[in-house]
């Protein structure tokens, strides 16, 4: 029986891994059975239903950075196998069937896309592409929201048990994806403080109008919301982020290369890597968004971290703390509407971990589970080192493995690393004798308990 790799969320990463697993399976390579557990629908976070976007805003990275990018497979078994020459090239060739351009060709949109100058697709179109790939590779998706992650010790080796309200899915390896939940808010329940999901909901109903608006966060999520806010009746927009200013991503060849090709990343010191991430990734707006920001005089930037928020006199008072010359300075500011766009939280899954799962991880980490400790423990396969069963955390792997792994920059490489990992000791990956296809199991009912 093939080991199972469960993925929380059927988003871009799950689709990329499922597509590559399907192609490797056709090539006769034993790879894990990939099962995604999804609370809404495939690629939901790229549509309005996921709460992170209204679907109309445009992808920041190029769509050619699709599920197979950078089409430079280096799959361990194919690299080492008897018929090694050409096998990775064959895999790349097979993956082009799932490319952005193949999608456009299959859906009759290719010529128009070229003639329009290769525009960045809307988030919605990107989700349609991901759904097309998922359908083509017969991706196995189980509907349900994962509410608890535990460790199952009934079999010989421990496995992950993913609990939804209806069932438990058992798996030999687990990959966590996505930015977390868009319903977070610094002042839940207050109508003047909106979560990301509430913002998009109100924007769709044209219910965003206020004098002084604050947007907390300086990342891609906040950027999409700023792009939308311009169209509504607001007098001033203050972007609050800890950075000295709102930086622009350079998007030149050398920066892009860091994301597409992590070769050499591990040779940098941790300090150099943190510096590179700060310049290119965290709290940095794309050039396109910056261009729009510059031309609108309603927008201001305020440096600081929001320490707390209170409702007072029909306004929201935010207390910002700023480090100035080594001293912590607190300042208060009033707004009519606050949008909490602090966005993606790579540790969003931690509250789902049961005590047994927490104990297992803390034992492996040799101390308390923190963002820092998790990041530093991520190995070449994007999983925590020396922890069984395997826990793949691509969202936290930027620091040790390369800045492209948490996002869409090298989904093909990400799939190689994850599928090339040995999920079950003594049941390592191998090439099957030719001609014996491994039929993909459509449902994992035999492995689903409860
Ligand atoms: C508005 C916005 C724009 C972005 N633009 C870019 C861009 O242009 N380029 C780029 O590289 N990155 C971009 N990002 C970052 C982006 O999040 C990642 O690059 C990419 O989506 C990660 O893919 P993923 O598979 O990890 O997650 P996603 O594609 O977000 O998928 C996560 C899935 O998990 C599901 N889910 C969540 N919780 C649960 C649960 N408890 N149980 C079951 N299912 C669950 C969700 O419904 C969702 O379908 C953007 C992010 C946002 C929010």
Automatic annotation (TrEMBL):
<feature type="region of interest" description="Disordered">
    <location>
        <begin position="430"/>
        <end position="450"/>
    </location>
</feature>
<keyword id="KW-0521">NADP</keyword>
<comment type="similarity">
    <text>Belongs to the lysine N(6)-hydroxylase/L-ornithine N(5)-oxygenase family.</text>
</comment>
<keyword id="KW-0274">FAD</keyword>
<dbReference type="InterPro" id="IPR025700">
    <property type="entry name" value="Lys/Orn_oxygenase"/>
</dbReference>
<dbReference type="InterPro" id="IPR036188">
    <property type="entry name" value="FAD/NAD-bd_sf"/>
</dbReference>
<keyword id="KW-0560">Oxidoreductase</keyword>
<dbReference type="GO" id="GO:0047091">
    <property type="term" value="F:L-lysine 6-monooxygenase (NADPH) activity"/>
</dbReference>
<protein>
    <recommendedName>
        <fullName>L-lysine N6-monooxygenase MbtG</fullName>
        <ecNumber>1.14.13.59</ecNumber>
    </recommendedName>
</protein>
<keyword id="KW-0503">Monooxygenase</keyword>
<comment type="pathway">
    <text>Siderophore biosynthesis; mycobactin biosynthesis.</text>
</comment>
<keyword id="KW-0285">Flavoprotein</keyword>
<dbReference type="Pfam" id="PF13434">
    <property type="entry name" value="Lys_Orn_oxgnase"/>
</dbReference>
């Amino acid at each position: 029986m093939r080991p199972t790799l469960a993925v929380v969320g059927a988003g871009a990463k799950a689709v990329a891994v499922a597509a590559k697993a399907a192609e490797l399976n056709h090539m006769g390579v034993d790879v894990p059975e990939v099962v995604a557990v999804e609370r809404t629908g495939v690629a939901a976070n790229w549509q309005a239903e996921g709460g992170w976007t209204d679907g109309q805003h445009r992808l920041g990275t190029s769509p050619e950075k699709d599920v197979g990018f950078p089409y430079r497979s280096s799959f361990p078994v194919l690299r080492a196998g008897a018929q090694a020459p050409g096998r990775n090239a064959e895999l790349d060739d097979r993956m082009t069937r799932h490319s952005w351009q193949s999608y456009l060709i299959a859906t009759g949109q290719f010529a128009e896309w070229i003639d329009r100058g290769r525009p960045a697709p809307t988030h919605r179109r990107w989700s349609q592409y991901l759904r097309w790939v998922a359908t083509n590779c017969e991706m196995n998706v189980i509907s349900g929201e994962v509410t608890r992650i535990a460790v199952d010790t009934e079999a010989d080796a421990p496995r992950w048990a993913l609990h939804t309200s209806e069932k438990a899915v058992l798996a030999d390896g687990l990959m966590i994806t996505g930015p977390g939940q868009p319903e977070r808010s610094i002042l839940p329940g207050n109508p003047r403080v909106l979560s990301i999901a509430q913002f998009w909901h109100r924007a769709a109903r044209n219910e965003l109008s206020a004098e002084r608006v604050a947007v907390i966060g300086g990342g891609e999520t906040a950027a999409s919301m700023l792009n939308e806010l311009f169209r509504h009746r607001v007098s001033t927009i203050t972007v609050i982020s800890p950075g000295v200013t709102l930086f622009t991503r350079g998007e030149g060849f050398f920066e892009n290369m860091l994301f597409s090709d992590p070769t050499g990343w591990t040779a940098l010191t941790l300090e150099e890597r943190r510096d590179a991430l700060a310049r290119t990734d965290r709290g940095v707006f794309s050039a396109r968004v910056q261009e729009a920001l510059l031309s609108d005089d309603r927008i201001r930037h305020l440096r600081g971290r929001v320490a707390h928020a209170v409702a007072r006199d029909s306004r929201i008072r935010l207390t910002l703390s700023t480090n100035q010359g080594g001293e912590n300075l607190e300042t208060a500011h009033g707004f009519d509407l606050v949008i909490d766009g602090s966005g993606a939280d790579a540790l969003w899954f931690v509250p789902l971990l049961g005590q047994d799962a927490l104990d297992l991880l803390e034992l492996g980490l040799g101390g308390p589970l923190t963002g820092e400790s998790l990041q530093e423990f991520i190995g070449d396969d994007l999983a925590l080192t020396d922890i069984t069963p395997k826990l793949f955390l691509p969202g936290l792997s930027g620091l040790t493995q390369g800045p492209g792994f948490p996002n869409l920059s090298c989904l093909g490489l990400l799939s190689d690393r994850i599928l090339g990992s040995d999920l079950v000791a003594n049941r390592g990956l191998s090439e099957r004798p030719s001609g014996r296809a491994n039929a993909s199991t459509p449902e994992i009912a035999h492995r689903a308990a409860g």
